[in-house]
């Protein structure tokens, strides 16, 4: 059964976040809130976590996983960003955007897109997510909590606990965080290509 953690949306309890971060380091798969919608998350190098996310969401190997980063300095360790792209991404973060960029060797090859050698990265504008990332001290490997054959992501922590009780290890809940996933922008060619229109205003990349 999944453990359920209810935290304050603006002042999340540090002891609770420390417990969740410890569980992630021990291999746990969690459901957690972001500034767009709930996501599934595990430790960056967790093969089991990756396989479980693929299984829950029925994903193939062409799916871009996302590294949820605390800040731009952390993001820069895991993707290659040239000067023009740097300015564009920096101006849009933190926020509801996911950026597809060439992965560095810090990213496990299992996470690379098989043809492009890219990975998704983002910096969330959400107090609980930021506090969890600060406690964890590294990016959280993530994917939107959108179940197969469903059009919208799950938005209520209690419902996630109820429906995914035996396939995730913990649910972190801080209230409703919306149903719209991030806007995805692919910068792997050096030019902005909008792959998915979502919560972040795509106009700045058109």
TrEMBL record:
Specify one Pfam family: Sua5_yciO_yrdC
* Gene Ontology MF, one: double-stranded RNA binding
What the entry lists under Gene3D superfamilies is as follows: DHBP synthase
Origin: domain of life: Bacteria
**Chain ranges of the YrdC-like domain:** 14-200
User: Which NCBIfam families does this chain map to?
Assistant: L-threonylcarbamoyladenylate synthase
Its protein name is: Threonylcarbamoyl-AMP synthase
Q: Name its species.
A: Streptomyces daliensis
The organism's lineage?
A: Bacteria, Bacillati, Actinomycetota, Actinomycetes, Kitasatosporales
